[in-house]
Amino acid sequence: MWKILAYSLGLTLAISLGYVYTCNEAVCGSVVSKCLLTQSCNCELTNCTCCKDCFNCLSYLFSECCSCVDKCPTNTDQTTKKPNLIESYVEDFLEPVPGLFQALTEKADDQNRWISVTYPIDFEVTEYTPKKLVKIHMKTNEQDVIPKTDILTLNCTVAFMSQCMSNAKCKSTCITMGASKYRWFHDACCECIGERCINYGINESRCKDCPMDNSQDEMTDDEEPDYPDDDEANETGANDEND
User: Fold this and answer.
1) For the ranges 33-37, 130-134, 182-186, the one whose mean pLDDT is highest
2) Spatial CA neighbour of 40 closest among 16, 56, 28
3) Helix (H) or strand (E) segment spanning residue 184
4) How far apart are CA 32 and CA 69, in angstroms?
5) pLDDT tens track for 193-202
6) Distance (Å, whole) CA 59 – CA 212
7) Which residues sit opposite 203 in a β-bridge?
8) In this structure, what is the dihedral angle of CA atoms 33, 34, 40, 41, given to the nearest 10 degrees?
9) Is the separation of the CB atoms in 188 and 211 below 8 Å?
10) Given the DSSP bridges, would you call strands 181-185 and 114-124 parallel, antiparallel or unpaired?
11) Which of 17, 18, 61, 142 lies at a 20 to 30 A Cα distance from 192?
12) CA-CA distances (angstroms) from residue 213 to 27, 204, 225, 230?
């Protein structure tokens, strides 16, 4: 009986390990055998009714061994499906000036230095909702409505700079505009983000003239985008002010 059980278990484990090349049998063999024996991971990832039990069973080895039981979400390259999805760097500002940012972005910029995008955000109000958000909602205009008593709808505004720029230049530009945070994409597109936005605005590179040519879409991970360095950007900014 035990020989049959051991053979079945070994066969199941071999199948599980066979189609996932990242599974480390030396590290995961013992704990995966236990989880397969107890059927703690016996469900599909798309309908993961056993995921909590599987997580607990694999314990501290979950991240190393989830692939052995086909419970690791795949990290597919989203850029192949949606080219505008580019890796980015984000940061919050300590002293934003929301009134300034709103004044600069509520209408189209005359010099086309940026393009503003405004869209509604709904989130549920609970006892854990930050008081700042509730306070912001009390100040919103008539377009910000409450579809339900426990739902807040706020308008998020972001501004995509038209030209490519360095991370440092992007940060300084968004600070001077009064933004609450910023997102700098690795293709050198800069996004300044208003105070009512969550999750750092729009996770898409939408700058009008950046990247500057199609060749940058084919950059490798070791290459850097062709954007002005900080000295050139500062010099250009000074010239603009003098004009």
Assistant:
1) 182-186
2) 56
3) strand 181-185
4) 7
5) 999 888 899 9
6) 48
7) none
8) -20
9) yes
10) unpaired
11) 142
12) 47, 17, 10, 21
Dist CA 158 CA 202 (whole Å): 8
Amino acid at 209: D
Q: Which residues pair with 182 in a beta bridge?
A: 91, 192
Output the pTM of the full model. Answer: 0.60
Instruction: Give the helix ranges, DSSP H, for the chain.
Output: 2-18, 25-37, 51-58, 62-65, 98-105, 131-138, 167-176, 230-242
Q: Tell me which DSSP letter residue 74 carries.
A: P
Q: Is 42 helix (H, G, I), strand (E, B) or coil?
A: coil
Residue 178: left if φ>0, alpha if ψ -120 to 50, beta else—which one?
Answer: left
DSSP secondary structure letter of residue 140: -
Give every CB contact of residue 74 below 8 A, 6+ residues apart in sequence.
none
122 by DSSP, 3-state: which? strand
Average pLDDT over the chain reads: 75
99: amino acid identity, one letter: G
Q: For the purposes of burial, counting CB atoms within 10 Å of the CB of 159, is it exposed (0-12), middle (13-18) or buried (19 or more)?
A: buried
CA–CA distance, 186 with 210 (Å, rounded to integer): 11
Look up residue 87 and give its two tokens: 């890796």
Q: By percentage, how much of the chain surpasses pLDDT 90?
A: 38
